[in-house]
Description:
Outer membrane efflux proteins (OEP), four-stranded antiparallel sheet, two-stranded parallel sheet, about 10% strand, disordered N terminus
Amino acid sequence: MIQMKRRASWNAIALMIIAAGPAIAIAQGSQSSSSSSNGTSSALGTAVQAQQQLAQPGPPINPSSSTAQNGIDPSFHGSLVAGKATAEVLPLSLDDAIQRGLRNNLGLILQSSNQRQANGQRLEELQSLLPMVTGSASITVEQINLAAEGLKFPGINPIIGPFQVEDFRAYLTQNLVNLNAFQTYLAAKHNFQAAKLTAQDARDLVVLTVGNAYLLCVADETRIKAVQAEFDSSKLSFDQARDAHEAGTSPRLDVLRAQVDYQSEEQTLIASVNQLAKDKLSLARAIGLPLDQKYELTDSTPFQALDTPDPEAAFQQALKQRKDLAAAVEKTKAAKATAKAAFDDQLPTLKASGNYGDIGETVGHSHGTFTAAGELSAPILQVAKNRGEREVAGAQLDQANAKLSDQVQQVNADVRDAILDIETAAKLVEATKSNVDLAREALSEAQQRFKAGVDDSLPVSQALATDRQAEDQYISALYQHNVAKLSLARALGVASTNYKEYLGGK
């Protein structure tokens, strides 16, 4: 699952950002009221310093750096391609992407195959408890030389035959008492139930993987729009600097500085477009779209608050709904049955067998015959084997119990982590949105002062960098908030059924 791990300083950073808001507003107010160039530059410097605090360690500037999905099998990032690419641009909503993933995702397909395999093993073990009936039909033509066997009788021809024997027979074998076979079957049955629950849990992992990939592409598109706006602003500043230099009111240094900013934004825009293309390929891989199929995202993810549940109540809910936890319980039951089978292997077994058939020279000259037998067998001297089996089974049972206990705590941690991430990310969204507005205002004022000849282009360059950083932080915080809500749905075991409710808010 996605682990939205944060450092311990995240909450402190969120509070620092919120606290920095009034200081930035005051700095902006001082910029508006100041008539001197030095006063304005100082206020802008204060704003820049406060804004740069966003970059310390909060959400990563590039959302793609936070998409490592710890604990998820890499197969969930692959799929079986369905259909062929078309020339049309395919509209793709989040719901469409998830439904395609539930049909084509490789991880889910492999888990379904594991379920079938476990069911086959269960049926194989069941057969040892059921009657086994086989049939045979034979026709034998034979000629015997008695002399070759040392049998000679005066006046009797030693050559007998040729003659034939026809035999049609059915054989029955049934275990009457075999506790080892019974416990082995129970273990296979629990393993099948575990595989079945794991396949159901895989649907949640598909929703988490596909949803994360879709949200990342949405974040990329939002970032491209923001970078495009910054690119246009840097182009405006570059044109202003060039016009001022040609008019003789601005030095060549201002032109060079504005040109560097303009070209830097151009490079950022190119890199952002490339990142979106790569992330769309990853999304296509997860849902089974041909990689050369062009598509566009039709859903956006605006900020929508979610009323987070009480952690303890949510944990109790997860204990009832998490399919992977239920699968771990079944694996523990399978280990117990295996341990019991290892003990029962030293007990006697009782088996009945028999056959019935019709035998004779021909069908018209034949007679029915049968055999019935009972067999009681018991191991006498295999101490090392029995003890070894019990040791292995006991160790496996201890491991299963330990894993189950740890998984319960992991579910608890998943729920609490997701709730903390939602609450923290919501605060960061609010703080970073406010800083975006302040950064844009600072950039606008710096451009106006430069155009009026009150200041040089350095404050414009600084304000442009601050605006880019604030935009990146806001986009990343929004992405983290949406992924945290999706992670909470997975932590509660309801991602495949209620993901719309969690992404859409309450």
